[in-house]
Design goal:
heterodimer, A: 5% strand, B: alpha+beta, Segregation and condensation protein B (chain A)
Chain lengths: 42, 588
């Protein structure tokens, strides 16, 4: 299945910061929710 | 302990009469402040004192206002005159000291000390940190690119200032610039204030780096795919299933820890979940802060040990196994051979699997499945069971709970490969203790994608002579009386009444049973009706029950062989309802 969107380096850096600040592993859904908040803020 | 303190009378001065007046005045005022403290001010109006002495004194002894004032004037250290509007007040204390006399400072009283905290000490300003400066030879881009035509050097200089946006965003980022730096950053066009005026802190708008497009229209599944594709390729990020973490924050295990985990799995003689490994091997209890972290670490680190550990779990039930563990399920036939038997299922699976989309699947157990204690991984089962969690996962261990027998079985689902079909092993005991071939079972999913319940249709106690494979001497099919209490599909139950000629038959040779067409032909000869010579006739349901003795057949496979036979040996029986005929000698 072809993916319509692709994450750029800034998105990866944002997610990396998110993961680095978390003491516990995060789920994919948590990353998606955070990514949506970031996208909406932008 | 002091119980009473006699107050010493003050020393009064003045001539005889004035002194006597002063003594009477002090006595009168002291009585007025009898219950006051020694240093509390006692103020009595001059008017009331005159009235008092006029009322209490005899003729000639009454003290007039002039005499009071004379007494006060003669003893300035004891009395004082205060004016409050029109009133004149004689003021003194019980200790005999005038209020105007100097008194020790009492501002630091006990009550005041409690109620009024001391002011915060003023800290000296921290010393200003020295700003790191780049060598001037590197600071100017224009000097480095002097040979090139630079139209707007000042703009470049502005961009060269290291102003960092905290996070990239589409909106402009407001950056506060120190006053001293503002003069350097601002271009001539932007400077509005005259130079002579004091420099005020300014705000410069810097466009941040462009971010990703708006994802509000993208659904979660698509976003998860994009996110997984990108993050899995990043070596800084650790991933296992649906969980993510920064790789360098995932705890590492020593070789000893890994060895102990492997030995513990071998000791238990079955795959173990990550929860069990963290609790029993690493001695960390559930609920402790580090439990989730260590569980993720177990999964992530063991997934890197391909030679020692195999992941055989699901998202909710993460089982780990080792290569040395005994196989789950039947030992009558090798898993590879079973996979080859089920090869036809690969063609029946949908191109786009839809895992866990149905809640339950009903199934009739065939003789082949009963004998080997397995179930086929067909399209319906695929829609019930979970997808492999890892890309290279070949099998998954599931728990099948049977509420009717209060037992939970560990079963292994072997996913299909390009050359072999999928199947579920490990139901030998459940089948032999509760069911017979032809029994109806229902497999239901639970919230846990690794746990399922299996129920069979209960029936009254009944007895029948059913087909079995006698393994005591030479392999041979026999009918034996069997009692059972499960519901069965009559057409698919191999009773002696329906298939009398199966008794005494030997299993087909391996070369024959490899070819489905040959197995169908042999089955016609075993169960077919010979009344219509020269061939055999049998109903489709009878054929389906009997061909599944030797090897697995689906309805679709059997129908395909019967309808699409190139040799012409099989044909639809025009006389019977959904029956077929077979003429011997036309297949090879």
């Amino acid at each position: 299945m072809a993916t319509a969107i692709k994450l750029n380096d800034d998105d990866v850096a944002y997610l990396l910061t998110l993961l680095r600040n978390s003491p516990q592993p995060l789920t994919t859904q948590q990353l998606i929710d955070a990514f949506r908040v970031k996208s909406g803020r932008a | 302990m002091v119980t009473q303190l006699e107050q010493a009378a003050p020393t009064l001065t003045g001539t005889g009469a004035v002194r006597a007046d002063a003594e009477r005045l002090f006595a009168a005022v002291a009585v007025h402040g009898h219950y006051m403290s020694a240093d509390a001010p006692i103020r009595v109006s001059l008017e009331s004192l005159v009235a008092f002495f006029a009322r209490t004194g005899d003729d000639g002894t009454a003290i007039t206002e002039e005499r009071i004032l004379a007494a006060v004037a003669a003893n300035p250290g004891v009395f004082g005159i205060e004016e409050a509007g029109d009133l004149r007040l004689v003021a003194t204390t019980r200790s005999g000291r005038a209020l105007t006399a100097e008194r020790p400072a009492s501002s630091h009283s006990f009550a005041k000390r409690l109620m009024t905290p001391l002011p915060k000490p003023e800290n000296p300003l921290p010393p200003q940190r020295e700003r790191v400066r780049v060598d001037p030879s590197w600071a100017s881009l224009a000097s480095q690119l002097g040979d090139l035509a630079m139209d707007d050097d000042e703009d470049d200089e502005t961009e060269a200032i290291g102003v960092e946006a905290e996070s990239p965003a589409m909106a402009p980022v407001e950056v506060f610039v120190e006053p001293a730096l503002a003069a350097e950053v601002a271009s001539p066009d932007q400077v509005e204030e005259p130079v002579a005026e004091p420099v005020v802190a300014r705000t410069i708008v810097v466009p941040a780096a462009p971010s990703t497009s708006d994802v509000s229209e993208v659904d979660d599944r698509e976003l998860a795919t994009a996110l997984s594709e990108r993050l899995r390729a990043d070596p800084r990020i650790a991933n296992f299933g649906e969980q993510w973490m920064v790789e360098d924050r995932v705890p590492r295990f020593s070789r000893g820890d890994l060895r102990r985990m492997k030995e513990y799995i071998q000791e238990q003689e079955q795959p173990l979940t990550d929860d069990v490994l963290v609790q029993d091997v690493l001695s960390v209890r559930p609920g402790t802060p580090e439990f989730d972290l260590l569980r993720f670490a177990v999964n992530f680190r063991l997934s890197r040990e391909h030679r020692e550990f195999d992941f055989v779990g699901t998202t909710n039930q993460r089982f780990w196994s080792t290569s040395s563990l005994p196989q789950i399920g039947t030992s009558r036939r090798k898993p590879n051979e079973i996979g080859t038997d089920y090869r036809f299922l690969s063609e029946e699976l949908p191109a786009e699997p839809e895992y866990r989309t149905v809640a339950s699947v009903d199934h009739v157990v065939t003789f082949y499945e009963y004998y080997h204690g397995l179930l086929p991984y067909d399209a319906r089962m695929q829609a019930l069971l979970p997808a492999p969690l890892l890309p290279d996962q070949r099998s998954v261990v599931l728990t099948f709970e049977t509420p009717q027998s209060y037992t939970t079985y560990l079963v292994e689902l072997r996913y299909p490969t390009p050359n072999r079909g999928g199947f579920i092993l490990g139901l030998d005991d459940f089948f032999s203790e509760n069911l017979v071939p032809g029994a109806l079972i229902s497999i239901n999913r639970t919230d846990n994608d690794g746990h399922y319940t299996v129920e069979y249709l209960s029936g009254g106690n009944q007895s029948a002579r059913l087909l079995e494979l006698d393994e005591r001497r030479a392999l041979r099919y026999v009918f034996r009386p069997i009692s059972f209490a499960c519901g069965v599909e009559d057409e698919l139950t191999l009773t002696e009444e329906r298939y009398p000629r199966l008794g005494g038959e030997k299993p087909l040779d391996e070369k024959v049973r490899r070819r489905p067409e040959a197995v169908v032909a042999a089955t016609f000869e075993r169960i077919g009706d010979q009344s219509e010579t020269p061939g055999f006739s049998a109903s489709f349901s009878s054929l389906l029950a009997a061909v599944n003795i030797e090897r697995p057949f689906s309805e679709r496979l059997l129908r395909s062989i019967l309808d699409n036979d190139d040799t012409g040996a099989f044909a639809r029986d025009t006389d019977g309802t959904d029956a077929y005929t077979y003429v011997r000698g036309t297949t090879s």
